[in-house]
Amino acid sequence: MKKLIGKIANVLRENRVLFLWILLFLLIGIVLGSYTVYYMGDYSKLEMGSYFNNFLEFMNGQEVNYKEILFSSIKSIVPMVLIIIALGYTLIGFPFILLINLVKGYVLGFSLSTIVTILGGKGVGIIFSTIIIQNLILVPIIILISIVAMKNSLVKFKSLGKDPNVNYGSKGEYIMIQGILFLIIPIGIIIETYISPNLLKLVIK
Hints:
Largest sheet: none
Distance between the termini: 39 Å
Number of helices: 8
Oligomer: single chain
Shape: globular
Radius of gyration: 19 Å
Number of strands: 0
């Protein structure tokens, strides 16, 4: 555990500029997502509010389908992370990694703003149970995976046109670090699958 924390600290320390870029794009996405809801027409907000309230009523009266939530959570997180890792192998992966973080931020901002718009201050418990709790783990891990992938992609880009026999980065080290970070993702998925739905039901009641 100490070794893992040390490696993560080194990644952040050695790649502060990349961290700031990724964080910037994530925050821009959150702001854009929030503004999308803010500038929606009254009719759209009313429709969204009706749908959301129906969803809460449905959740309140139904047994939690953990299998469905698990598959949904895996589908929404794992492909995105694998794409980021794969982009780290490419020469031009770094702008696309930033774009993925922008989209992730947009989804977060849209979701948060939607709940606040519909429920106001009463939505704090729902925001915590449905969005914040699992993303306290998932977002930092996605940021770290993005940093490592961007660094690897930039190293490949900078080595373009140079001697191909020169080793510009260890493929084994890249896989090892990304593998360690990837193994933390199931913690967030488990929280989203088994803890968040039950917290939501408690909040609704």
